[in-house]
């Protein structure tokens, strides 16, 4: 389907350093439509395996959910920052780990219906250590998760976010149950 869609107008009603919210008007074969769109800076997620039996995660308070979750380390790139630099920075800030080598595993758009965010998943190798330095208001602490504990964390809804579930799937660790 190669029908022509044209952006007619985009009105910004909120802007921060990493997100802009717009109301966009499009000309489509069905007529004009309006859609809210979130324009988001590129984000990164990290696969970190300090040893074969563990996955490095973070326990983080998520304000929209009003609860704690267990997730792979991740974050948003700063303006002008490459995703590789963002991955290294987020790894140190959230977990206190560094890495000598990053390998890109996957690029995807987490929520194409409302957002243009691009997420890049990296795997970190040759680990070292540094001082943790989370952003203000970012309630996060590193947690080494045994692979054997992952099914229970998913079943309990502690692991429930899309990027972490996708990483677990990439690693062949996603259990049969899928509930949050």
Characterise this structure.
This protein has 180 residues and is of the alpha+beta class. The protein is 16% helix and 46% strand. The protein has helices at 83-95, 150-155, 162-170, and strands at 6-15, 19-28, 31-40, 43-48, 54-62, 67-71, 74-76, 97-108, 119-129, 140-146. The strands form three sheets. The chain has a four-stranded mixed β-sheet with strand order 7-4-9-8, sandwiched between helices. Strands 1-2-3 form a three-stranded antiparallel β-sheet, with no helix packed on it. The protein has a three-stranded antiparallel β-sheet with strand order 6-5-10, with no helix packed on it. A hairpin with a 2-residue loop joins strand 2 (19-28) and strand 3. The mean pLDDT is 93.
Task: Present the secondary structure layout.
Blueprint: E1 6-15, E2 19-28, E3 31-40, E4 43-48, E5 54-62, E6 67-71, E7 74-76, H1 83-95, E8 97-108, E9 119-129, E10 140-146, H2 150-155, H3 162-170
Parallel strand pairs: 4-9
Antiparallel strand pairs: 1-2, 2-3, 4-7, 5-6, 5-10, 8-9
Separation of the first and last Cα atoms: 35 Å
Tell how many strands the DSSP assignment holds: 10
Biggest β-sheet strands, sense, barrel: 4 strands, mixed
Rg computed from alpha carbons, rounded to a whole number of angstroms: 18 Å
Shape: globular
Main attributes of the structure:
3 helices; 180 residues; alpha+beta; single chain; three-stranded antiparallel beta sheet; 10 strands
Short overview:
The protein is of the alpha+beta class. It has helices at 83-95, 150-155, 162-170, and strands at residues 6-15, 19-28, 31-40, 43-48, 54-62, 67-71, 74-76, 97-108, 119-129, 140-146.
């Amino acid at each position: 389907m190669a029908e022509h869609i044209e952006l007619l107008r985009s009105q910004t009603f909120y802007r921060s350093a990493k997100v802009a919210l717009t109301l966009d008007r499009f000309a489509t074969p069905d007529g004009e439509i309006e859609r809210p769109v979130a324009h988001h800076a590129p984000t990164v997620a990290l696969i970190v395996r300090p040893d074969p039996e563990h996955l490095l995660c973070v326990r983080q308070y998520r304000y929209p959910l009003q609860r704690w979750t267990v997730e792979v380390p991740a974050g948003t790139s700063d303006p002008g920052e490459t995703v590789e630099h963002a991955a290294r920075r987020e790894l140190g800030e959230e977990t206190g780990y560094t890495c000598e080598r990053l390998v890109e595993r996957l690029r995807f758009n987490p929520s194409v219906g409302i957002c243009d965010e691009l997420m890049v998943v990296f795997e970190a190798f040759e680990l070292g250590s540094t001082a943790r330095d989370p952003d203000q208001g970012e309630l996060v602490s590193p947690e080494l998760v045994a692979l054997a504990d992952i099914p229970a964390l998913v079943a309990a809804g502690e692991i429930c976010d899309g990027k972490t579930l996708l990483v677990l799937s990439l690693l062949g660790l996603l259990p049969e149950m899928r509930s949050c």
